[in-house]
Design brief:
- By secondary structure, the chain is mostly helical.
- It has 2 domains: 8-200 and 256-461, MFS general substrate transporter like domains (Growth Hormone, Chain: A, Up-down Bundle); 207-255, no CATH class.
- The protein contains 18 helices and no strands.
- Helix 2 packs across helix 3 (47-75), helix 6 (133-164) packs antiparallel against helix 14 (308-328) and helix 15 packs antiparallel against helix 16 (357-384).
- Residues 14-466 form the Major facilitator superfamily (MFS) profile domain.
- One of its GO terms (cellular component) is plasma membrane.
- Keywords: Cell membrane, Membrane, Transmembrane, Transmembrane helix, Transport.
């Protein structure tokens, strides 16, 4: 095998293709949120099933990401990317043509399966194409900005498609991304794979998938009560299975998740912060879209545009965030970012039924945008810094999985919190809109404390030179 990389010109065009893939995967976590009321009415989906249109994607994605990363490492990253693209397109077409709620949920789950192949393959190929230096920092900054703005872009695109076309186009639009990805991937991407031991860890795959599924389902059942036997049973089973998974990873000679990937203090802190970010970007922002439509009476398009302020702030301040990262280093930046984001969420927690978007929502979104800008620019780079080439795919998978596991659990927990708060307010005689606004505010308040915990985690675990130049990943041999 040779270690020859493509020309600089080709590398940057390849980054465009991989960036579009990342955008598709991230926005699919949120694009259907805006369309949910319309899809629910069209397909007769019950309120209790509604969250699974979002969660089914996140659960299968999270549960299979580590396996997807290993498949990318062992089978070939370009090959895995291309197969993932085809499968994702097929699942999107099925979902867009679904005739029942169960069919839509199943299609969303299948999307997650193929996204679990796509995402780690794409991120690992960025590490391959940009092994070190300033170009690597720029490439990961681009990927980080896409990860940060993709969710909000999903809300906007979902609003446009739902209002002016049909909610089904929120899934069918993926076909355009898939076609572009397949053509660009065939022309521009190089093949690479890990050397040495390439055996798969079947027991590890089964235990981690069952563990995450049990935990997320258990949190979802908490909507009916934390003390219910099935809630306790699933959460207990999930925790036991996760313990078995971790124990096995330290024993087997071919682990699904080599513990060396997470034992590094800085990288472990980055993975934890990814999970915290998922709590807000997937869990809390879902309830902001509900507030826009159910309390403020916005159309799907207006609700989509309601999130643009945060996205705009992230994009506008990204160059400044990059300089701050270079000047002050990762610890300072990744502590300040979560604190700012938490401050924005505390502002949002004060929303009322009588308040307007401009007075009660916009200020919080602007502050959150400033905070997220500081987080997204360095986070992807930090999560992969210094990873052994053999583990590039699985580390990329863990970076993605952390965010989506956080989001999946957040949707479930926040649904339980929302239901409890709403029921209590209505029982006490509050009107429907004030009760809804109060329940949404409680979700944002809880998310703010989670993000504050993220700041504490960053301060305690993340270290790095003030130059912001993190240890490079060695170039992976390409063939």
């Amino acid at each position: 095998m040779s270690s020859v990389l493509p020309s600089p010109h080709t590398r940057w065009w390849a980054l465009v293709v991989l960036g579009l893939t990342q955008l598709m995967v991230v926005l699919d976590g949120t694009i259907v949120a805006i369309a949910l009321p319309a899809a629910q009415a069209d397909l007769g989906i019950a309120d209790g099933q509604r969250q699974w249109v979002v969660t089914a994607y996140a659960v299968t994605f999270s549960a299979l990401l580590l396996l997807g990363g290993r498949i990318a490492d062992y089978w070939g990253r370009k090959r895995t990317f291309m197969v993932g693209m085809v499968g994702f397109g097929a699942a999107s077409a099925w979902g867009g043509l679904a005739q029942s709620g169960a069919e839509l949920i199943a299609a969303r789950g299948l999307q997650g399966v193929f996204a679990a192949l796509l995402a780690p393959a794409a991120l690992a190929m960025v590490a391959v194409l940009f092994p070190s230096g300033r170009d690597r920092n720029v490439a990961f900054a681009v990927f980080g900005i896409i990860a940060g703005t993709g969710a909000a872009f999903g809300f906007l695109l979902g609003g446009v498609l739902t209002q002016y076309a049909d909610w089904r186009w929120c899934l069918l639009v993926n076909l355009f991304f898939v076609i572009a990805g397949l053509i660009g991937g065939k022309i521009l991407l190089i093949e690479s794979k890990a050397e040495g031991d390439t055996r798969y860890d079947i027991l590890g795959t089964v235990t981690v998938a069952l563990s995450l599924g049990a935990l997320i389902y258990g949190f979802a059942r908490a909507e009916h009560g934390w003390g219910e036997p099935d809630t306790i049973g699933f959460l207990t089973a999930g925790a036991i299975l996760m313990g078995i998974f971790v124990w096995w990873q330290g024993r087997t000679s071919h682990p699904l998740l080599p513990l060396r990937v997470i034992r590094d203090r800085v990288r472990g802190g980055a993975f934890l912060l990814q999970a915290v970010v998922g709590v807000v970007m997937v869990g809390a922002m879902l309830y902001l879209t509900f507030h826009f439509q159910l309390v403020l009476g916005m159309s799907p398009l207006a609700a989509g545009f309601g999130n643009v302020a945060m996205t705009g702030v992230i994009m506008a301040t990204a160059p400044v965030s990059t300089r701050l990262f270079t000047t002050f280093g990762p610890r300072a930046v990744l502590t300040a970012g979560p604190l700012l984001t938490a401050a924005g969420l505390f502002l949002l927690s004060g929303i009322t039924a009588e308040g307007s978007y401009w007075s009660e929502v916009l200020p919080g979104l602007v502050v959150m945008g400033l905070g997220f800008s500081l987080i997204f620019v360095p986070l992807q780079n930090l999560a992969l810094a210094g990873v052994d080439p053999h583990d590039a795919g699985v580390a990329s998978a863990l970076a993605n999985a952390s965010m989506h596991v956080g989001g999946s659990i957040a949707v479930a927990v926040f649904t339980a919190l929302y239901t409890s708060s709403l029921t209590e307010s209505l029982t006490q005689g509050a009107g429907k809109l004030p009760a809804l606004a109060g329940a949404h505010g409680d979700v944002f308040f809880a998310a703010a404390w989670v993000m504050t915990l993220g700041a504490v985690t960053s301060f305690a675990l993340i270290r790095g030179p003030k130059t912001g130049m993190l240890p490079p990943v060695d170039a992976v041999a390409a063939h």
